[in-house]
Amino acid sequence: MSYRFFLGCYTQQNTSSEAMPAKGIYTIEISEEGKLIGEPRLVAKQVSPTYFYLTKNKKTLYAVSEPGEGARGLIVAYHVAEDGSLTAFSKQVSARGGLCHVMMDQEEKNLIVIAYHDATIESYPIDEEGKITPMFCLRHHIGSGPVIDRQEAAHTHSINFTPDYRYAVVCDLGIDQLRVYTLITETGKLHRAPGKNVICPPGSGPRHMVFSPDGRFAYVACELNSEVLTLSYDPQMGLKLLVEFAGRGDPRLLGRSCLGLCLGDAGAGLAQHPVEARALGLAAGSARRAARRAAHSVGVD
């Protein structure tokens, strides 16, 4: 048995002078023992694909792009073949700039995308054929944080639904907040959830989050201080910040960028970054793993 991963990258830059120019979306096969089977294979050409959503039936992959500065983002829908090959069948240009995250609601009727530099959340209804229809709703964050060179403005980075799909939670790196919304599935409209936002430690820069398998806890990877925040979740009370830890006690990791976070039960998870490695393989168990950019490391808790 093996596992298939789809990999994104920045196509405008390479990780080293010896690297081949990246061209889009790649696929790799990993054995149960964690060994690479064959070589990465280009399955679709797309400018800087940064994040993906694979539908529950594994037949459609939605990919978002983060082109160069000033360019608008792109959303592409692909049919997924048995061998992992991709065929594009629908596209939409985003309302704002480059996109860094994508998620769907429980019924997979709406695609929600995140634009980092513009600090926007955009929803795109999906038709019966899986095609992306024009944007229906846009929400915009404003504000700033104490880290002047990274928090000069709001920067939405990811969106996740709570396990019961009651709320959509947006990590905003620029204002150190988790902004909470509700989604009207029939229309794709996002509404703010009064009193449900979470204030994170100043200068932490929340980037990505995952929920525990039982849905009672959430973990947030903070890019700017390399901390992982732990929160409790209750459908009525919402999210509540509990504890935080920094760098697993290793002073060499303090101040490093914490990029991705995976919580394993069985199978595999993947966090990606276009410049430095962010691939995380999760074996059986419930270990919490976080990738750090500058340290090229994975922390396990």
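Next protein, fold it too.
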Amino acid sequence: MNLIQSLPLALKAELRFKFILKKRYILETVMSLLALYGLFMGIFLGIKTLGGVELTSGDFNTNIAYGIISYVMWSLSSTAFGGMNNIITSEALAGTLEQLYLSPFGFLRILILRALSGMLFNLIEMIALLSLIMVSTGIYLKHNILAAIPVLIVTLIGLYGFGFILAGLALIFKRTGPIVGVIQFLFLFLSVVPLDSFSMVIKKFLQSLPLVQGVSIIKRLMVHQESLSSMFFNFDLLILGMNSVFYALFGILFFKWIDGKARHYGLVGHY
């Protein structure tokens, strides 16, 4: 069986592996979702109480809808690029990292397939989180849902590029948790703060980041009910796609370069 024919089987195996882990550690999965839900509701109720605003206010509902999209996208992005780092760290701690390198399929391909399987399960978890938040706040994002899905997937492709960069750093430095934490809070800030708050130069740079551009497009689709076709004519989707492909390819190439360095200096089997 050649490499192309073995890809579906390898992806099926990774999906089964991910499902078994989720099932085995179901309490961890549920508690993680509840923690994300509790954090958002704490912020939501705090703003409502301290601000003294009414839920029937149009501006308030719009701002909360912005907040819901930003928060869910940030949560999804955190699991995307943070998960790649966790794969390296957990495999190194378990002493199975070298075994993955000995696989005839290749470690990089295994990492890419785990990213794809992780993306599917992360999407399912974020749908559950989004549903809980919408039911609790009474603010429903029901416009252009199908149109937002491809935008979300393209955004995630770029975010996994950052994941490969962090995975490469984890091969060399092993304990990269603080780096992941800093990037997570930075991305939370960028997903919440409006781009108009920055100067034109900084705004253009931030628009090159998949998360920032993706969040902006999804807000326009689901809150302002703009059509997906209008995004084609002003090149927003094209820019998002090009940026995501760039970051994904750069992340993979960076990982391959760091991987070569780690092998050369014998760092793969050490933690």
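About the second fold: The longest helix spans residues 58-94.
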